[in-house]
Amino acid sequence: MRPGGAPVAVVLRGIKSKVKNVSSHSAACEEKTGVPVARAVLIDMEPKVISQTLSMAARSGCWKYDHQSHFCQKQGSGNNWANGYSVHGPRHKDAIMNLVQKEAEKCDRLSGFFTVMSMAGGTGSGMGAFVTQCLRDAFPASFILNQVVWPYGTGEVIVQNYNSVLTLSHLYQSSDALLVHENDAIHKICAQLMNIKQISFRDVNRVIAHQLGSVFQPTHTSEGAVRYSRNPLGDLMESLVPHPEFKMLGLRNIPQMSENSLAYSTFTWPGLIKHLRQMLIANAKMEEGINWQVRPPLSGLPVSQKCCLSRAPHFNTSIANLVILRGKDVQSVDVGGFRDAALYTSWLNPQDAFNVWKTPRAFNKYEKSAALVSNSQFLLKPLDDIVGKAWNMFASKAYVHQYTKFGIEEEDFLDCFTALEQYPQSKAFCISFQDRNCSDGPRVQAEQW
Amino acid sequence: MTQSVVVQVGQCGNQIGCRFWDLALREHAAVNQKGIYDEALSSFFRNVDTRTDGDGIDIYKGKICSLKARALLIDMEEGVVNEILQGPLRDVFDSKQLITDVSGSGNNWAVGHKLYGCQYWENIVEKLRRTAEHCDCLQCFFVIHSMGGGTGSGLGTFVLNVLEDEFPEVYRFVTSVYPSGEDDVVTSPYNSVLAMKELNEHADCVLPIENESLFNIVSKIHQMTNSGKLGSTVKQNSLITSSAGGIRTDQAKPFDAMNNIVANLLLNLTSSARFEGSLNMDLNEISMNLVPFPQLHYLVSSLTPLYTLADVNVPSRRLDQMFSDAFSKDHQLIQADPKHSLYLACALLVRGNVQVSDLRRNIERLKPSLQFVSWNQEGWKTGLCSVPPVGHSHSLLALANNTCVKPTFMELKDRFMKLYKKKAHLHHYLHVDGMEQSCFSEAISSLTDLIEEYNQLDVSKGGPRTDPPRLKIAM
């Protein structure tokens, strides 16, 4: 049994992750001298972003960071994962873990840690992976959820694919779950849904913060519950990570639009749920441009045929899903569509594979809003892209000297590649697991997407 | 926040350096309205209380008292350095930051490197140590010199060696002015190739500059501003060649316009490390992302815009034009054509009011016309700094690791071989203590190897792309 209670956010600033909007009064903050103070530790190897972040929060007048709770150096990691992981990490481990310990001690009941980091740079990725390992060692009974920013496909950092491969393979060993945000997807949301013309990182981060808020703001996590959940992190893990091999989670929410449009829109729950379900099935990241042609296999068919059909292009099979509903009339919402066995692998009952949390309290000006956290195949293609590009670069040994300079050798790279190549294969293997048990028809080979 | 130290060696190095410090002060004065000594200033300047004796006490916060450049000025002739010390920038330099001699190096690399190197080694180390001690966190040395002469080329590369030995963790960025074919110094090919070997082995990044390109840019601007129509509306202080607004009010020197371009290059290169932005690009990131193999660290630079018109409105079309210009031949600081060669990596450092969506849109637009090496198809590194340069609303510095430097190096090798085959002027070099024939053969061999590495990459250009097979895991 893991303890419930408040999570501590360990915020690692690589390039730009800024979690704003932590305005909840229960889970993440504690009252102190009137203004809530975030339970957070800010870490960066260079000072500019942290000082901006601290002052911006303080200026808001609504909340702030504890000004002692940050760790900073003078010179960044130079986009070098090895520098973050092998040099800065060990060098500053004690100082950082002291800060974490202090925050942990302020909690009545510590449920776990929520880290925020990017994969493309050196600090967020390398140091992030190192700190996660340290958290796991120091707090073996606590949950660790890593929020990871997946970089743009092109044009942020040239060695981003190396950094990403190294990060993911390491996080997989110490983290309980990874909650992934893809810059490309969020950028599209800003462009097409929010109608922003000149998109800045601030806009992108605001969308990410909104999505996180829509999950972690207080809710009732069980039917008939009177009080808000005391342990959202634990409830999340329990719902979504039944198997330790599969821990990459994605986030979708609806609706998402600019404030101007909001005034002229009305939403119905059936409409929202229907769109959200199709976003899951068709692996769409937002409510525009959804492919309505993609369908789950029909449940009446014999199992073998069912397996064939579920190999239809782009159908996104899930291991588990969690829907979070906020706003008016939330008690009457029909989420039956998410309990369809066809959406899931066969190892869990749809009853267990799907959970719903509710609260009548509206979130962030949306009268009705729904969020979906899913453990599904959605990341297989992006992961394959990154591994492919990194492997391509590694084959020519480009940039490898920059990493060996700081202690990450070619064998270390190979280990990471091996670990990540295993992931999609095991995912497909598990999905075909159901085939082993079918008595009708020939055995269907697991196909890659 | 980190600090950088500029080491300017020889006549060319010091003249460029002088322009750099002038423009740096101008830039900080424009940004720093309150006269407070802030972190941005501290990257290149110390704040010293000069009322006390000796070195002066460093003041880390509060009002600006007296700014001193973090620099070392080295020249084996006194002319240029003396001029600086008598000019309006004299208060920016400490007499303890100078190393000078009287007779010069006679355009002889061996004299600069072996003779003066040996003689001044201790002095150099001591002065470098002192400047380093004044730094809280020293990140980078910028060496500015020319390749064709004796002091900048010989002593400059000697100092590079010393920097590596004494400060191995600190990055070494070298701005090198390469001689053109019609250089009036007969032995410039010897000096350049001997210096190249040192750059190959001891520099982290080299930014080669050619006078011809600088001259072309100056002419282009001259044409634009004097063509009548645009002349009156160009903002004078926005010209990349201008010293307007700087401290110097006396007669501009002939090379000033060209040297200002290089000074602006250095200011833009370090802008993201000094000022804030939504996507910071520190100097160590430049080295990390742009140098895929240790020897291939020669970066072709281009700066835009060259000037700004006085009207304030900047439609996004003009912004896009800026990106296109960065890839045009006319804006490169060496005579090279990256667009028709192979890119290994490219960095875009944008300053001013430009957002990530503008950056992405332009990368998407320009990508199809550029050839990137097969293992780095998305080889872009980007940085966004909020503070634009003086007189501009935005600007762009593009740094490319591109095989287009190969012709430059091949020409250099040819010119060297023409002299070397006839053993012309060799005796001047071999006379110097410590200088042997093997220095020449090793130098030319180093250059040949470098050219060959670029060749290997070029060979792969345009061929069918075969991705290496992925790992297969047995389950």
Structural description of this entry:
The complex is a heterodimer of chains A (449) and B (475). Chain A starts with 5 loop residues before the first strand and ends in a 13-residue tail after the last helix. Chain A has 14 helices and 13 strands. Chain A is an alpha/beta fold and 449 residues long. The N terminus and C terminus of chain A are likely disordered. By secondary structure, chain B is of the alpha/beta class. Chain B has a domain of 272 residues: Rossmann fold, CATH 3.40.50.1440. In chain B, 42% of the residues lie in helices and 17% in strands. Chain B contains 14 helices and 14 strands. In chain B, helix 5 links the parallel strand 7 and strand 8. The chains are: A alpha/beta (449), B alpha/beta (475). Chains A and B meet through helix 1, helix 6, helix 12 and helix 14 of A and helix 9, helix 11 and strand 13 of B.
Can you say what the CATH homologous superfamily of the domain at 182-377 in chain A is? Tubulin/FtsZ, GTPase domain
Q: Which CATH first-tier class of the domain at 3-274 in chain B would you pick?
A: Alpha Beta
CATH domain class name of the domain at 182-377 in chain A: Alpha Beta
**Helix residue percentage of chain A:** 40-55%
Distance from N terminus to C terminus of chain B (CA atoms, Å) equals: 49 Å
- Largest interface, and how many residues on either side? A-B, 53 and 48 residues
Which outline of chain B best applies?
Answer: globular
Number of DSSP strands of chain A?
13
The main sheet of chain A orders its strands as: 6-4-1-7-8-9-10-13-11-12
